[in-house]
Amino acid sequence: MRQNSTAPRNNKLKPSSNLIMNGSVRVRVIRTLLAIQNGQSLSSVLDPLLNSLHDGDKGFAHALLLTTLRQWHALARLLDSLADNPIDEVEVRTTIQVGLVQLLYLEVADHAAIHETVEAAKEIEFAHSTGLVNAILRKVAKNPSKFRKKCDKKHSLPNWLAYQLKQDWSEQYDELTQGLRQPAPMFLRVNSAVTSVEEYQHALDGAEIDTDIVELTTGFKVANASETTTLSTKGLRLHQSTAVNALPDFAVGTASVQDMHAQLAAPIINQALMAKLSSESANTNSESDESNNNELHILDACAAPGGKLAHWLELISANDESSLFHVKQDNAETSPVITDIKVTAIDNEAPRIERIRENLQRLNLSQHDLQQAEKSVALNIVCADATRWQHGKNKKAATNEPVFDAILLDSPCTATGVIRRHPDISILRTEEDIEQTALLQADILHNLWPQLKAGGYLLYVTCSILKQENVEQMQDFITHHNDAVAIEFTEDCSWGIEQAIGRQCLPIDSASGDGFYYALLHKTAE
Fold first, then answer.
1. Total Cβ atoms within 10 A of residue 199
2. What is the largest CA-CA distance in the chain?
3. What would the DSSP string read from start to end of 414-479?
């Protein structure tokens, strides 16, 4: 969820994408950082920056920009300790911080880092600051190891966020705050409808791309089931990030880039629904209930950019036990319970809807592709606000009766769990965003829950590590909904930290995935 920060003081330079594309590499990075401080996201300014550069400069610009963002708040504190008087001009502060990164983290030669940064100050029309820029950088260059240690000693987060993490994760605080300033590894999800993780790893080996297989085990017990449901999720962790065009068969949908902890979502909600169907099949008369059990309607809410939706469609399309079409009645060897599956996906912005369609098209999971398949899967992608959207509300015969058997809610959040990948978050987010986001989450939950059938499941997911958006949100929801029951994840889980409701992944565990929260809710009949 995008949140804007307060604009910096005395900012006479308000960079546009055209300004970012002009000047030396360092100047372009400085202007990009100024754009981020003005509220633009890294994802919106990174491509314009890189596309404006020669290939030989792109690697340095990317490293300079991302490293400066990751160390932003630590650098700011170091800068305050180095200056005799407060430096209020944001352009000057940004320029010096870019210079400090070159000296402390990128091992750029002293003379080059200092000279080029001083020249950058002139180029952005802050020539009056060149003496100050030169003096501070020369001081640091005399003993870079000393100042690197000083910079690394504490966290590189805004103080309000560090304080909240201390409250929420006191035992993990030191490791967590240091971990958030490090780059995140690249993970791949392999399309199980096309090939196996092991086979694709072999193809990567042939392309000289080294990977590890990461396997996460999940256990939970759905309502009325006699046994615990256990499933395994496998992904690939690359030893070194690689351009997607270098990945074998990436363009034809064999693999997708997706964080390992994000890869848990689709298997969990899919398996919960399968366990529900299996339990119903074992406890009902197949002849009398056949007409009620041959169709499923599932919802992916806040679906963009479509990674979890694509994963769920891949599982549905797979010719193995992960497919919902393969759930069979207890007394039938050949007849599947499910013959038709309707999938609805919603998101609230047209460009994000287009991103979903593009991703599904690459993976051969568009509505056209699904119509050509043997299984009957109908996909409907809707641009709508999840706080108000009601299924079928634009139809004459529309009612607000429950329609969905399962809902995957990838809820808007402050995205504090993915700061390693999006370090601009620590600049863009404010303390007030937490409360606003929690209210938005509650509105979405209250709107979607009545549309879930009794006996159905809702999987609540965020990429946040703040408890107010996660376990506290779930506790409040269950308190106000008597028909909501939290499904416990069992000790079979190899991921996350058990919470009062659900489990919390932190970006410091052995899998190296991002910070994600998962809670599985069952809707009972009131």
1. 11
2. 86
3. --GGGTTT-TTHHHH--HHHHHHHHHHHHHHHHHHGGGEEEEEEEEEEES---GGGTHHHHHHHHH
**What is the reported pTM?**
0.91
Catalytic residue list contains 463: yes
DSSP class of residue 328 equals B
Orientation angle between helical segments 265-283 and 286-293, nearest 10 degrees: 150
Nearest by Cα to 182 from 509, 508, 517, 518: 508
Cβ-proximal residues to 120 (8 Å cutoff; 6+ apart), any chain:
23, 24, 26, 27, 30, 95, 98
Q: What is the pLDDT of residue 317?
A: 82
Cα 424 to Cα 73, 92, 414: the distances in Å are 11, 19, 12
Nearest one of 67, 31, 63, 32 to 47, comparing CA atoms? 32
Task: Please give the pLDDT value at position 369.
Answer: 79
Judged by phi (left if over 0) then psi (alpha if -120 to 50, else beta), residue 496 lies in: left
- The DSSP code sequence of 72-104 is HHHHHHHHHHH-SS----HHHHHHHHHHHHHHH
Q: How much of the chain is in helix, strand and coil states, percent to nearest 5?
A: 45, 15, 40
Closest-CA residue to 103 (of 71, 58, 59, 77): 71
With 70 as the cut, is the pLDDT of residue 18 above it?
Answer: no
Average pLDDT over residues 151-155: 94
Cβ–Cβ < 8 Å for 147, 104: yes
CA angle, 37 then 41 then 44, to 5°: 125
CB 100 within 8 A of CB 78: yes
pLDDT tens per residue across span 360-416:
999 999 887 787 766 789 999 999 999 999 997 655 444 567 999 999 999 999 999
SS3 call for 404: strand
Cβ-count burial 100-111 (b if 16+ within 10 Å, e if not) = bbbbbbeebeee
What phi and psi, each to the nearest 5 degrees, are found at residue 404? -95, 140
Marked catalytic residue, from 302, 413, 463, 493: 463
Dihedrals φ, ψ of 391, to 5°? -60, 130
Name the nearest CA neighbour of 461 among 350, 300, 232, 271. 300
Distances (CA, A) of 347 to 383, 385, 433: 5, 7, 20
